[in-house]
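SAMPLE LOG
Freezer: B-3
Tube label: C17
Construct: single chain, 336 aa
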Amino acid sequence: MILHPGILALLTGSGIVLLLCLYASVTGARILLRWDRSSSSELQYQLELRTVLVSTLVRYALAFEILSGILFIYTVDDLHPLFVGAMCATGSLNANPVGWNALLVKLAIWFVAALWLVLNRFDEQAEDFPLVRVKYALLPLVTYLVGLDCYYQLSYFLGLQPEVITSCCGALFTASGGGLAGELAGLPAKPAMIAFYGGAGVLLVLLMACLVWRSGWLRLLLTLVAAGFLPLALAAVISFISLYIYQMPSHHCPFDLFQGHYHFIGYPLYLSLFAAVLYGALPGLFRPLARHPSLATALYETDRRWLWRALVALLIFLALATAPALLGQMVLIGYG
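STRUCTURE (predicted):
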């Protein structure tokens, strides 16, 4: 099993990324200790050259980490025929529960890595490197998450035993299954729809308001709403969106969406959701950078691109989530 192409790519890639991040963290610590932007010494010149090298290495490493989340889901789903009782990625993850930890860490890395890359991009655009200390102070956290991801992935794949009889989504994502997954699957459809579409409506209104006005508090509010929309949308996927996609009133699995039977709709569905949340949160998170004279112009120009991307991604997510309910034959409210 360890010779599966996806597993080999994930483990090899994660190992290389971890080595690059460790090198970057050590080098970044040295840069932090000796950095003096007001100095014109040869040492400062060497540090400025080194920060370009480190930024380039980390940029490519984190880009792989972001893509590895998609590869992990694809690989885990592709492994499910090897386990008795597994019908999708849920069964593969239940075959060795450490896999759930790997999945959660990958989700955390997706957002943290994206934030670091945005921070790095702004720093490289300014001639005075105003964010060097901030981005290198955050690098150990990124490296820790990458190391944790590497550890969980290795533990998960090495711990998989094909003879294990596993349970799948039918046992986990059901109202009688207990736990958080069971609670979400058991949510009444109508209140869940009201909460989901209400939250999406508030997010849409805030995005359009931020496109009209440059208010700082509006962007802060947008960040909070975007962050809160992520768990709300994930709960809605389990509660009722998946039911409409499957056209089955009792099938709540959020992982079958990645299978070809359902046209791999899970990939654009989740990617558009994550993109909407990320781009919606960025304007408020990076608003304090406007106080740096060398960053203000670039920030205001980028701010609108983030807002438009968040708006487009949110509309795509809502279209994908709503179309099966409008076009399908199933009427779910009667089951709520």
